Amino acid sequence: MTLPSIILNREMLSNFDDAVQKEWVITNGLGSYASSTVLGINTRKYHGLLVAAFSPPANRRVCLAKLDEEISSESKTYPISVNEFRNGIFPRGHTFLKEFSISPFPKYIYGVENVEVQKSIFMPYEKNAVITFYKILNKSGFDVKIRVFPLINWRHVHSVTDRWKSSWEFIEKQEEKEIVDIHFSVPPSVLVIKTINGQYHAAGKWIDGMHYREEAKRGESCLDDCYQLGYFEVGVKANENENFAIIAVADKNEVDARKIMAEISVTMYDVEALYEHEIKRRENLLTKFYEKHGSIPTEDWLNWIILATDMFIVNGIDDTQKSVIAGYHWFEAWGRDTFVSMPGLMLVTGRFEDARKVFLTFKKYFRQGLIPNFFPDQMEQPAYNAVDTTLWFVNAVLQYLKYTNDFEFIQEQFWETLKAIIENYTRGTTFNIHADGDGLLSHGSQLTWMDATIDGQPITPRAGKGVEVQALWYNSLKTMELLANKFKERSEAENYAQMAEKARKSFVEKFWNSKKNCLFDVVSDYSVDDSLRPNQIVAVALDFTMLDNAKNEKIVDTVHHELLTPYGLRTLARDDSRYIGVFAGDRRSRDKAYHNGTVWPWLLGSFTKAFLKTKGYADYRCEYALEN
């Protein structure tokens, strides 16, 4: 199976303002990643060549910010790296960049006179390591030297370093000519950097005030100090070629870091074999998908999506745990995002064992009828501040069963947990979550996915009875009825059926907005919120719906006309006085716009399902959904 590729030539790369906005990211299955721009300039504090999760998938730290290179001959030195400072860009090595490609790993090709430098970057799966390997083609009539300067940091991914105030200190140790160890005191940890086919020269200095333009736009801290170690040097004779690699490993102690380094490579042959292994692993992901879905034609855009699914599935602190990173670069493992995305990430792709591990991981943290909303990156206790996360968990169980028919696993591992969810939601649990007298689910403010705040005050509080919460509640009750019948617990099945019917009648009575031919967004004891938002599409998309097809189709038509864009659904209709059409600026501005107009792609999944459910699955309908 051929991997997809994206190639940018010199002409494309010469448009700096356009190229500097194009970013890449690769991951390692632990929550760690490497990321930068196609020009090689870091524009975010989240960019780095090795951003390692020290307690996977959490506690992510920028360890190795980047590698800067220069080509040196007898008479001249050419920096081919690029960095930005407040007063400008220096050096301007991007002017030597001939090509950037990604397939699926990033590759830079530089040309200086008759010397070509090819730089490829990849991360070994499930190791906190990054490998940069170089191919030097010296077609000139003189010898050259390639020097590679590592820029290190040791900060949390959300912070920046001011070296005069930094809490981290380090000791540099070099016992071999090709390897250097950097020992950090806060937190105790180590970075080991090794070259194959070169040697290290100690000559460190601070690089102060690196400027991250994207953070400046966002009103975030944007100046960072990095320590430039010495340099790794490789000589290339006239009219000859040379290959070498720089390997960086981060861990909590030197013994473990050295062990990983020894497992990775000793020679260039080892590096190339590992690279091919990582390529093969991704080819296998594609092969497995198309074997499972034989009628689907191979398309590059689909191949990129399949490969992207792999980036979000991460291990926990051991091999028995799995979770989902909600987004790179800065989101943690979120429960809601995990179970909303599970069908696409793990079920369609046939990763059923990963799905089972995800269920079991979240079950470990089940408290008072709730599944965790998210796990903070800095290893605090899980947060449970969501009414819908647990209901998405129940829906994910239903989707898992549709793909696997694995009722035995669900009965043995989760049946009691599922019953406890319904019991706690009915009786009442934290955050004022409880079933009301009308059978619908009532909840406090800031407990849905629209949870942004300013100065501690929710922007879209949605206290009362959110429309998608009721849809998920009904869907959960019907799922429980189905399972109780399957497990021959007839009285339980009847109870869930009665609860579901009561909720359905109340929903039909209270949520239909006849003026707009859609659903109210929130209903409370004293008022209704008729804001036209996309949450109602969930009520149509789920397997069990409370409305007849006529009303469902009207909802789809309204959302289609008012909220649909090529990139997702708007979070608020444009004619609403609170609508904000641009998500930009400082955190306050962004948070205000977050759910008041900002387009969210994840909602396209629910919209597409709802569209086809109501319009039918004729070929022309499916084609329309695909193209629009």
Secondary structure elements and their pairing?
Elements: E1 6-9, H1 10-14, H2 16-19, E2 23-27, E3 33-37, E4 48-55, E5 58-72, E6 77-79, E7 82-85, E8 88-92, E9 97-102, E10 106-112, E11 115-122, E12 129-138, E13 144-156, E14 170-176, E15 179-184, E16 189-196, E17 199-201, E18 205-211, H3 213-217, E19 223-228, E20 231-236, E21 241-251, H4 254-264, H5 268-292, H6 300-312, E22 313-315, E23 322-324, E24 333-334, H7 335-347, H8 352-363, E25 374-375, H9 389-404, H10 407-427, E26 434-435, E27 441-442, E28 453-454, E29 457-458, E30 465-466, H11 467-486, H12 490-511, E31 512-513, E32 518-519, E33 522-523, E34 528-529, H13 537-541, H14 549-562, E35 564-565, E36 568-570, H15 587-593, E37 599-600, H16 603-615, H17 619-627
Antiparallel strand pairs: 1-9, 2-3, 3-4, 4-5, 5-6, 5-13, 7-8, 9-10, 10-11, 11-12, 12-21, 13-19, 13-20, 14-15, 15-16, 16-21, 17-20, 18-19, 22-23, 24-25, 26-27, 28-29, 30-33, 31-32, 33-34, 35-36, 36-37
- Main sheet record: 10 strands, antiparallel
Give the N-to-C terminal Cα separation: 28 Å
Helix content: 25-40%
Derived structural class = alpha+beta
Low-confidence stretches: none
Number of DSSP E strands:
37
Average pLDDT taken over every residue: 96
Per DSSP, the total helix count is: 17
Radius of gyration: 27 Å
Shape: elongated
Strand content: 25-35%
Structural features, described:
The chain is α+β, with helices and mostly antiparallel strands. The strands form 10 sheets. Strands 2, 3, 4, 5, 6, 13, 17, 18, 19 and 20 form a 10-stranded antiparallel β-sheet that branches. Strands 1-9-10-11-12-21-16-15-14 form a 9-stranded antiparallel β-sheet. A 3-stranded antiparallel β-sheet has the order 30-33-34. Strand 22 (about 315) and strand 23 (about 320-325) form a beta hairpin. The two termini are about 30 Å apart.
